[in-house]
Amino acid sequence: MGKRLNEETRLQIVKEALAGIKVGVLARMYTIHPETIRGWIREHRDEITPDEIPLADEHVQELQRLQEVESRYEKAVKVLGEKELEIEILRELLKKKNPAYLKPTK
Q1: pLDDT at residue 34 above 50?
Q2: What sign for the dihedral angle of Cα 20, 23, 27, 32?
Q3: Residue 21 burial by CB count (10 A; 0-12/13-18/19+): exposed, middle or buried?
Q4: Helix, strand, coil shares of the chain as percentages rounded to 5?
Q5: Can you give the C-alpha Rg of the chain in angstroms?
Q6: Each residue's pLDDT tens digit, 47-100
Q7: Are 50 and 80 a contacting pair, CB within 8 Å?
Q8: How many domains does the structure of the chain reveal?
Q9: 3 state SS of 35
Q10: Which UniProt keywords apply (predicted)?
C-alpha cells in the first residue's frame, strides 16, 4: 500500500490476525511486510477484547479460504517439483550408454 495506514486499518489487520488469519496471508493481501504486522499485533493485542475479534464474517471467511487455497497450492507445487525431478533423473538414465539397470546380474 506504500502509504502509512491509519490506526483503524491497523487495528482491523490485528483483529484479523487474532481471528486466526496467518500473518503471511494478511501481508500479501495488504502488501505490508509480515514483521510490520507482527509489531502491530504485539503493540495492540492487549487493547483488543475477545468480542472485538471478528468471527466468521465474509471477509474473515474469504481470508481463511485464501489461506487454505495457498496451502493446497504449496503442496501441489512441492509434489509437482518432485515429479519433475524424477522425470529428469529418468531422462538422464535413458541417455547413458551402459546404464547399471541393464547390466546382467550373476
Answers
A1: yes
A2: positive
A3: buried
A4: 70, 0, 30
A5: 24
A6: 888 888 876 566 777 777 888 888 888 888 888 888 998 998 888 888 877 666
A7: no
A8: 1
A9: helix
A10: Coiled coil
Q: Are 66 and 30 in contact (CB under 8 A)?
A: no
Q: Is residue 60 part of a domain?
A: yes
What cell does 103 get?
A: 547390466
* Residue 37 CB neighbour total at 10 angstroms: 20
Q: Which three cell numbers stand for residue 60?
A: 474473515
Q: 82: which 3 cell numbers? A: 518432485
pTM: 0.51
Residue 103 lies in a domain: no
37, amino acid identity: I
- Which amino acid is located at 10 in the chain? R
- Phi, then psi, of 62 in degrees rounded to 5: -65, -40
- Domain span including residue 78: 7-96
